[in-house]
Design brief:
about 230 residues, alpha/beta, Rossmann fold, 7-stranded parallel sheet, two-stranded parallel sheet, 9 strands, about 20% strand
């Protein structure tokens, strides 16, 4: 339907982003898929049908502006923005390269902030919903993990955004996955959640009536100790 709500997802080419896109389409949303991997986006968009793929580097402000502009041009509205793009690093302050650290911090923190900033004017018109991907690592500092530090920043960012947008009708939700089987890990484990498990939490948050704002959802595997 031409008046169906529109769901914008960054980091949509795989993992939680792709799983959320599939479930959003099943729930009746039109979706706008954003990531740096245009070939993967195009393949997913072809599977989903009423979907738009927009190659996006969230660390570039201009790309975020173009993403929201493309969503409005194609569909005329934006109802949900899921700032999900991000990646990790090995634990240990002497692990990884300084360049890897820089790219991770820019993507996980500044990229999320840019995506939300670009979307706010459209979300005010739709009285829409902001979601950010946090982490269990954003609630408990992990030894030697700069990734954990970026997710602590996202935890604070979510509440700052919520307070700033209070009174606009926009809702804000922080999604905090525990151990989840995504491309983030290169060592598969039977004890982790699946991306679809997190996507269900996302759809739960956005499916609430307008006066209900689920501010944070922490999802852990049953077997996770911490």
């Amino acid at each position: 339907m031409s008046d169906s709500p529109v769901f914008v997802i960054t980091g949509a080419s795989s993992g939680i982003g792709a799983a959320t896109a599939r479930q959003a389409v099943e729930a009746g949303y039109r979706v706008v898929l954003a990531a740096r991997s245009k070939d993967k986006l195009d393949a997913l968009a072809a599977q989903l049908g009423d979907a738009l793929a927009v190659e996006t580097d969230v660390t570039r402000w201009e790309d975020n502006e173009r993403l929201i502009g493309a969503a409005l041009d194609a569909f005329g509205r934006v109802d949900v923005v899921f700032a999900n793009a991000g990646f990790g690093a090995a634990r240990g302050w002497l692990k990884e390269t300084p360049d890897h650290w820089r790219d991770m911090v820019l993507t996980n923190v500044l990229g999320a902030a840019y995506t939300v900033r670009a979307a706010i004017p459209a979300l005010k018109k739709s009285r829409g919903h902001v979601l950010l991907t946090g982490s269990m690592a954003g609630r408990k500092a992990l030894p030697g993990s700069l990734y954990s530090s970026t997710k602590w920043a996202v935890t604070g960012m979510s509440e700052s955004i919520r307070a700033d947008l209070n009174g606009t009708g926009i809702r804000t939700t922080l999604i905090c996955p525990g151990g989840t089987e995504t491309p983030f890990f290169d060592n598969p484990s039977e004890g982790r959640l699946e991306a679809d498990d997190i996507a269900r939490a996302v759809l739960y948050a956005v499916s609430q009536p307008p006066h209900v704002d689920i501010n944070e959802i922490l999802v852990r595997p049953t077997a996770q100790e911490q």
